Amino acid sequence: MQVEQPFRCGKVALLGRPNVGKSTLMNHLIGAKAAIVTPKPQTTRHRILGIYTDARRQIIFVDTPGIHKGKLRLNRNMVRTAYAAAEEADVLVIMQDASRPLDAGTRMLIERFATGPLRKPRFHVLNKIDRVAKNDLLPRIDLLRRLDPEAKGYIPLSARKGIQTDRLLDAVTPFLPVGEPVYDPDWFTDQSQRRLVSEYIREQVFLAMHQEIPFHTAVDVERFQEEAWGVEIDAVILVGAESHKPMLIGKGGQRLKLIGTRARQELERLLGCRVRLNLWVKVDPDWFDSPAKLMDLGIHG
Ligand SMILES: Nc1nc2c(ncn2[C@@H]2O[C@H](COP(=O)(O)OP(=O)(O)OP(=O)(O)O)[C@@H](O)[C@H]2O)c(=O)[nH]1
Ligand SMILES: [Mg+2]
Q1: Which of 49, 143, 255, 266 is 20 to 30 A from 191 in CA distance terms?
Q2: Which fold has domain 193-296?
Q3: What is the pTM of this model?
Q4: DSSP 8-class letter at 4
Q5: What is the pLDDT of residues 125-154, one digit of tens each?
Q6: Which of 17, 20, 24 to mutate to test the pocket of ligand 1 (most atoms within 8 A of CB)?
């Protein structure tokens, strides 16, 4: 690869309320699935790096949990993780869902990043423009300009459809420090294989379950064994209450089987080999409020 000078390398935190499309955008920009995506809010629980490298820059995107109010230790740790990512970043990208009216929570976030101690070079992204009429977009951008006149840019795009996403790469680049790449350009994330595997399984749990149940589940990978024919994985799906267990397993084990099949297919794509996936469901009451269990799952805030 021809390296252009000066090479720039830095961190760009993706921040916003849950479900605005942060993980979708990061995956699209780096061209890989570093973070799981579901239609449910509070999908992302960790700080997840997604690494973009070309001849003149390495942009280390930091995907974060959506900022929300929640009483459980799980929720508080998630929100702390998001603010910590903002603190370590060179540039902030504050995202909102432009297909919905600007809500009080988003306004509060904008104000916090525009005036608080985390003030630094920042861009506002208005996502999901594939669902917005053109005439509605300009007043929305004007409103943002008024709320945060010192931001470096206001970028309407669609992360899912890939509309105008490349604009963001060029917009943030001048605000990154000059320096050598930190990560191997061939790799797209800092997550361990085990963490990726547990996230890919959790994605299928989130997609298959309704209402409150996904928020009270977690996935623990207990064994990751490389074999001559591929990989054998044992994973436990934690549920927070006895009553959730039969719902996850389904009639005659149908739902768990479906989750397992879909997760296995995704994992085979990720790992590029055959996968045998053994899933168990375990009740661990209130794991989402247990400091030790959260530490174990890497959700320590
Ligand atoms: N129509 C449309 N939907 C989108 C777009 N970007 C993301 N979505 C959808 O919005 C939902 C949430 O996307 P995520 O990327 O998981 O959102 P997030 O901000 O990471 O959410 P949390 O991790 O919960 O904070 C998913 O169903 C996405 O497919 C977009 O540009 N247009
Ligand atoms: Mg996310």
Answers
A1: 255
A2: GMP Synthetase; Chain A, domain 3 (3.30.300)
A3: 0.97
A4: P
A5: 999 999 999 999 999 999 999 999 999 999
A6: 24
